[in-house]
Amino acid sequence: MTGKTPANTYPAYDQVPLWTRPFVFLMLQNLLFWVAMNMFATVLPGYVLAIGGTAAQTGILVGLFSYAALLLRPVSGVLLDRWERRKVLLAGTALATAVSFAYPFLSFLTGLAILRLIHGLGFSAYSTASSTMAADIVPESRMSEGLGVFGLANTISMAMGPSIGLALVRYGYQNLFLVISGLMVVSLVLVFWIDGSVKSRFHEPQHEVIQNQPEVTKAHDSSPQTLLALIQGMLEKSALRPSLVAFFMLIAVGSIMAFLPLYGLDRGFGNIGLFFTVYAGALILARFMTGRLADVHGSNIVFIPSMLLAMISTLLLAFARSELTMLLAAVFYGAGTGLAFPILSAILIRLAPVHRRGAANATFFAAIDIAAGSGSIAMGLVSQYWGFTVFFLIATVVFLISLVLYILLLGRLEKKTQELIRIEYCEPDETLASNSSD
Q1: Cβ-Cβ contacts under 8 Å for 358 (sequence gap 6 or more)
Q2: What per-residue string of b and e applies to 193-219 under the rule 16 or more CB within 10 Å gives b?
Q3: How do residues 231-285 score in pLDDT, each as one tens digit?
Q4: Residue at 267 is within a domain
Q5: What is the DSSP letter of 350?
Q6: Is the dihedral angle over the CA atoms 134, 135, 139, 143 positive or is it negative?
Q7: Left if phi > 0, otherwise alpha if psi is -120 to 50, otherwise beta: which for 53?
């Protein structure tokens, strides 16, 4: 590569391959990991109640998991930018797999708290690494669609994990945890099938990015760092705006998904697992119908309607008295929240320098960890003392705050920074043509 090309010189959209071998294997590994994680998340509230806990204590356990993940985010970001991505992915998966085997043997609240802390550390390394690797592999001109498709593994796991978990509860929690551990083992094995050195040809290799940096920057990077410089290196300022929007969105999303099983018991809905299945189906359909809209016409056309749908869903859940209303809310919830998150992820990746994508993802997920931890603890108290009607009304207000912040902070981003065509490191079209002919 001899230099950068103009920002608007990338290949035609349909000529860029998305379904490459590294992308497919990463998606499959991600699917199995998230099936196991969603099985954990769905059965945990019932398990806590079964061993004598309360809804508020469930929220605390969810919060501990998120705060543990938060602790490792900055370190994960630095390692991803300076180390091979797959090594971080492997370390996170291995730790989460090892911890999953311990759940059947620590059936008391203190033991669960310790496990959730350690589990959160493994999840932190894994989730930061997998999202960063996906951003490396996905072509720049299909970033919104590609990250949305990659996120379908999470979505499918939302249909499979909760339903499988709730179905296996009848055979006992011990057996359920062993099944989850088996899924984690398969996920761990798949990591070795992912070629960690492969990156999309539309992204400049790491060593070239370093070579293109000014000499002053390279000299600074090799010098001893102060504590402040180290902290600044762990955070990426370009990620702050999308992270703030995601923070409020995930306060609602994280607490809702954690407490839906208890909500079903409270309202007398016999099969709350159907909510997750309908939610996942609506999300998959919505992503396939709108996957290219954000890349072709901009983020606003997808994000703003999606958040409005999310608010409709929480209002329906607040006053639902029948399973039909609950399932209608699941449709709106799936179409709403499922479309919003990949939009923020794509904006995040487009704004971040290529050599700082690990730090950008770490900053983004750190905001999500804080939101999920704080939201789960606070909303657990709300559900216990004020009920689920107030719970979902508060969630509606939080979604509204997220939407307003998006409009103020990111709504005009396309005009100001040419987000739709901003590709900082892109090979010339002639090189692409020669590569495709080889």
Answers
A1: 76, 77, 78, 79, 80, 81, 85, 128, 132
A2: ebebebbbbbbbebeebeebeeeeeee
A3: 555 677 888 899 999 999 988 887 887 788 889 888 988 777 788 889 888 888 8
A4: yes
A5: H
A6: positive
A7: beta
Tell me which residues of the chain have a pLDDT lower than 70.
Answer: 1-16, 141, 144, 196-234, 290-292, 294-295, 413-438
Cβ-contact 275, 429 below 8 angstroms: no
Q: What are 355's two structure tokens?
A: 């050599």
Distance CA 402, CA 247 (A): 8
In this structure, are residues 383 and 375 in contact, taking their beta carbons and an 8 Å threshold? Answer: no
Give the amino acid at 17. P
Residue 375: strand, helix, or coil:
helix
Q: What is the CATH number of the domain that holds 384?
A: 1.20.1250.20
Please state, in angstroms and rounded to a whole number, the distance separating the CA atoms of residues 73 and 428: 35
Handedness of CA 221, 223, 224, 229 (dihedral sign): negative
Report the alpha-carbon distance of residue 336 to residue 321 in Å, rounded.
22
The per-residue pLDDT for 231 is 52
Instruction: Residue 124: give the domain boundaries.
Output: 17-200+231-437
Q: Is residue 206 part of a domain?
A: no
Identity at 175, one-letter amino acid code: N
Distances from the Cα of 436 to the Cαs of 229, 402, 430, 431, in angstroms? 42, 42, 10, 9
Return all residues near 217 (Cβ < 8 A) that are at least 6 apart.
Answer: none
Residue 373 is encoded by which pair of tokens? 């931890």
- Residue 82 is encoded by which pair of tokens? 């300076």
12 occurs within a structural domain: no
Distances (CA, A) of 139 to 31, 292, 360, 375: 21, 13, 18, 34
With vertex at residue 167, the alpha carbon angle to CA 314 and CA 57, rounded to the nearest 5 degrees, is 55
Q: Helix or strand or coil: residue 396?
A: helix
Q: Identify the pLDDT of residue 209.
A: 40
Which helix H or strand E contains 110, and what residues bound it? helix 109-137
Residue found by looking up tokens 């990949």 in the block: 342
Q: Whats the size of the chain, residue-wise?
A: 438
Whether the Cβ atoms of residue 48 and residue 63 lie closer than 8 Å to each other: no
For the chain, how many structural domains are there in total? 1
Domain for residue 237, yes or no? Answer: yes
237, 362 contact by CB (below 8 A)? no
- The three-state secondary structure class of 392 is helix
Tokens found for residue 75: 């370190």
Burial status of residue 108 (CB atoms within 10 A of its CB: 0-12, 13-18, 19 or more) = exposed
Residue pair 95/124 in contact (Cβ under 8 Å)? The answer is no
Q: What is the Rg, in whole angstroms, of the alpha carbon atoms belonging to the chain?
A: 21
* Predicted pLDDT at 233: 54
